[in-house]
Amino acid sequence: MSDKYTALWVSHSSISTFLECPRAYFLKNIYKDPKTGHKIKLMSPPLALGQAVHEVIESLSEIKTDLRFQEPLLDKFERSWQKFSGEKGGFFDKNTEYEYKKRGEAMIRRVINNPGPLGELAIKINMDLPYYWLSETDNIILCGKIDWLKYYPDSDSVEIIDFKTSRHEEGEDSLQLPIYHLLVKNCQNREVTAASYWYLDSSDELTHKKLPDLKEAEEKILKIAKRIKLQKSLNKFDCPGGKSGCRACRSYEAILRGQAKYVGLDDYKADVYVMNKSEKEIESKIL
Asked: How many domains are contained in the chain?
């Protein structure tokens, strides 16, 4: 019987984590600190950069097209950055924060000088967190936030656009577009006719991608989700790296051992931690 309160909710992020390391999936998505009852989250400079830039850009989709750039975007970015400044963003020295902040400002300037789809009509899915039943029989829900949906009035269709703040390109085997295609198809009524990435750190233009096949995507995602559900029922989330752990779970294990610094709660009431040592230092100590 389907029930969204007992259902397994999966997303691009949680599925990607599970495929990399089931133990990391458990620590990020299921584990709650017995002292606080909260989930745990690890903040890092790259994550802080991505969240600050995304916050500015995604806010534009809720503003009418001709008013989007009325408030200077760099002012918005400055306000957003304050949420992540210092230890809150995993920055333990001013030089590191300065470099990351400058990268963020450069991305925002790129958007100001080349607004592209941000200056055109957009569709906003009327859900705080878009989701649909991937399988009511299996009690599994697929969810996720889409960065931007460009609207084409002539065809009454949409293009999925995802903003990238990393210097690394998304791999061809990534499940992000298949998942986003499924979500947009099932969470609003317009046809999806295109999909693109915008690498804000390096490009003024969109990188167009081939639309994934919906049937194939749904079968693949459901198969993985069923694996997650099975391992959850067995309470078996082992790291493929064994007791020494792997890159995906090692930092979260360090949180459990008290080797991370607590910096506060995020918007979802998760306990946020930062590492004041590089992951390489942590790994060398563990190994």
From this structure: 2
